[in-house]
Specification:
single chain, alpha/beta, eight-stranded parallel barrel, two-stranded antiparallel sheet, 14 helices
Length: about 325
């Protein structure tokens, strides 16, 4: 699969853009674990134009994480064009436009998935951005605003006509937010349109290697994008990338998983500072499957998510890895 001249190989698996998740360190780890392409946190066009430091920092790309896409969002043509030019100067491999974010502070103001209620404006922005930069431009969007306006099959063709080089479709409407199930049959309908010639990337509810293989084999997409399942679990790309071509490999060991979590903590602290770095990493710790299903874990989880220093957090991780999990494993062996 190619996006412009960027060759991602056969059946690429990608890390989705996620606010407060896909920082530079996390992207690099996911890339090392098998992600074929990674996306930055989304970037507000208005904040970029105003040179807000927290926003401009999102443009920094490590050479080792490439190919990398920077994603922007906004609701007006001129700011989006100006932001696109700023992004182009940062030299990502791909510029992605966010027409899919469903949260109220974005969609409620007409940006992100809010553009699904103003298709002429969406197309105007897309066309203007494509014409303003030399980078390959892509779009990420949803099936439609709600169940009664699932317009994605026709919309995909219209976006293609604007000059985009690939399209990512999340298989929900904006009204669904992240509830219910992603409709992969609808994504397949987009791919089946003979007039669609650009690559189609499917997104939504991909959590296992088997689902990755099914997305390619059953629904026919050109690429798969993985989002929430990767939070606190960057190692999942290793098995997912193998499964894309029909190979299934063992999961990394518990020790390998803890090593990656520790690396995330360390690099988050190095990137910001100890206090804010730990605040940032809490979302990964809260979501990580490493800590799911541990009996009587509530107090330890609370302590882990309240830790304010690296040493305090490391002591908890050490206890979980060397005491709690081995005790559970021994108990399960004795039962069998």
């Amino acid at each position: 699969m190619k996006i412009g001249e960027i060759d991602l190989g056969e059946r690429p698996v990608m890390l989705a853009p996620m606010e407060d998740v896909t920082d530079r360190s996390f992207r690099l780890i996911c890339k090392e674990q098998g992600a074929d392409m990674v996306y930055t946190e989304f970037v507000s066009a208005d904040a970029l134009i105003r040179n807000i430091a927290a926003t401009t920092r999102k443009l920094h790309i490590d050479p080792l994480e490439r190919p990398t896409a920077i994603q922007i969002y906004g609701r007006e043509v001129e700011p989006m064009v100006e932001a696109a030019k700023i992004v182009e100067a940062a030299a990502p491999d791909v510029l992605d436009i966010n027409f899919g974010c469903p949260v109220k502070k974005v969609a409620g103001k007409g940006a992100g998935a809010g553009m699904l209620r103003d298709i002429p404006k969406m197309l105007e922005i897309t066309r203007a951005v494509v014409n303003a930069v030399k980078l390959p431009v892509t779009v990420k969007t949803r099936l439609g605003w709600d169940h009664d306006s699932r317009i994605i099959v026709d919309l995909a063709e219209q976006l293609q006509d604007c000059g985009i080089k690939a399209l990512t479709v999340h298989g929900r409407t904006r009204s669904q937010m992240y509830t219910g199930s992603a409709d992969w049959e609808m994504i397949a309908r987009v791919k089946e349109n003979p007039r669609l010639t650009i690559p189609l990337i499917g997104n939504g509810d991909i959590t296992t290697p088997e689902q990755v293989n099914e997305a390619f084999s059953r629904y026919g997409v050109d690429g798969v994008m993985v989002g929430r399942a990767s939070i606190g679990a960057p190692w999942i790309f290793r098995g997912m990338k193998a499964a894309a071509s029909g190979n299934y490999i063992p999961e990394p060991s518990t020790a390998e998983k803890f090593a990656l979590i520790r690396r995330q903590i360390s690099e988050s602290i190095d990137r910001i500072d100890e206090y804010r770095g730990i605040l940032h990493i809490r979302r990964h710790l809260a979501a990580s499957p490493l800590f799911k299903g541990i009996p009587n874990f509530r107090e330890t989880r609370i302590a882990m998510l309240r830790a304010e220093t690296a040493s305090e957090l490391e002591a908890i991780l050490q206890r979980v890895e060397t005491e709690i999990l081995p005790a559970i494993e021994n108990e399960n062996k004795n039962k069998n």
